[in-house]
Amino acid sequence: MEIEVYQQQGRVPVTIFTIRGDIDAQTYDQLQNQVQASIQAGARNVLLDMAGVNYISSYGVRALSQIYDWLRDTGETPIAGHKSPHVKLVNVSAPVSKVLETTGMDLYLDIYSDRENAIATF
Amino acid sequence: MQAGLTVQAARENLAVLRDFISARLRADGVPTSISDDVVQAVDEAACNIITHGYQSQPGSIRLELVCDGGTITARLTDQAPLFDPTQLPPAKKDRPPEERAAGGMGVLLMRAMVDSISYRVTDDGNNELTLQKRYQT
To answer: Rounded to an integer, what distance in angstroms lies between the CA atom of residue A1 and that of residue A76?
Structure first.
C-alpha cells in the first residue's frame, strides 16, 4: 500500500491522504500510523482519497473506525448517524462502498465523489 | 473449474489468496461483483484462522476453489487447534465504532458476502470451513 500525504487550504487546512492498494490485516496499521502521526503533528481535518483502493477488509474498517475516534468531536458520545466533521472519504470504489455499508461505517463517515467538493465541506 | 493453493498462515499471504481467487474466477467468467464477495469472505475467514486459530504461530492454510453450475465453493483447511468461526458473534452494525471488535466485523462481513458457511472437523482432525455463493449464470 502506498500513501501520499499533502495539505490543501480550504476554509480550514485539510490533510489529504491518497491511498493506493488494499487495506487489509497486513497493511491497515500503516494507514492508521500515518494518520496518527499527522494528527500528532497538528492535523485536525482529514480527507481520505480512496480512488486507488479496491479492497478493504474488516481490519481496514477498524483503521477507519480508529481514525474516526481520534477525530470526532471530543466529549460527544458517538451515535449512529453522527458523522465526524473532521474525517471524510472521497472516491470510494463499489466494493469498498459495499463493505462500509455492510459494517455500518457509512453511518459515521461522510462520503463524497469529488475531491474539491469534499475539501469545501470542512 | 477446480483449483487449489496452499499458503503459509501469515498475513502477507492474504493478498496471495485474494489474487488467486480473483484470477481463477475471472478466467471462469464469474462477474466481478460476485468474485469480489467471495474474495472478501475468504480473506476474512483466512485472517481469522491466522489470528484466532494459529494465533500467529507457524502453520499452513489450504484453499480449494470450485466453480460449478452457478455455485462457487471455497473450502479452507488448516491444522490449527480446533476453532469454529461460525460460533463467533457478529459485530452489531448499529453500535458505535469504538464498541466493535475487529473479529466480530470480520464475521459480519463473511456472513454477508456468501450464501452459506459451514464448519466441520475432518477425519484427520483438521479444521474445515466451507463457504458457498450462488449466482446467475
So the answer is: 33
B-facing residues of A in 60-119 (CB < 8 A) are 61-62, 64-66, 68-69, 77-80, 94-95, 98-99, 102-105, 107-108
Q: Assign a CATH topology to domain A2-120.
A: Transcription Regulator spoIIAA (3.30.750)
With an 8 Å Cβ cutoff, is A25 touching chain B?
yes
The answer to whether the CB of A109 falls within 8 A of the CB of A83 is yes
Whether B105 has its CB under 8 Å from any CB of chain A: the answer is yes
Does any CB of chain B come closer than 8 Å to the CB of residue A46?
A: no
| pLDDT tens-digit profile, chain A (122 residues) | 999 999 999 899 999 999 999 999 999 999 999 999 999 999 999 999 999 999 999 999 999 999 998 997 655 555 556 788 899 999 999 999 999 999 999 988 999 999 999 999 99
Gap between the Cα atoms of A16 and B67, Å rounded: 41
Residue from the list A57, A68, A80 with its beta carbon closest to the beta carbon of B47: A57
What total number of domains does chain B contain? 1
Closest-CA residue of B relative to A22 is: B15
Eight-state DSSP code of residue B50: I
Closest CA to B115 of B62, B37, B30, B21: B37
User: Nearest Cα to B36, choosing from A97, A16, A80, A18?
Assistant: A97
Neighbours of B85 (CB within 10 A): 20
Q: Which CATH number characterizes residue B82's domain? A: 3.30.565.10
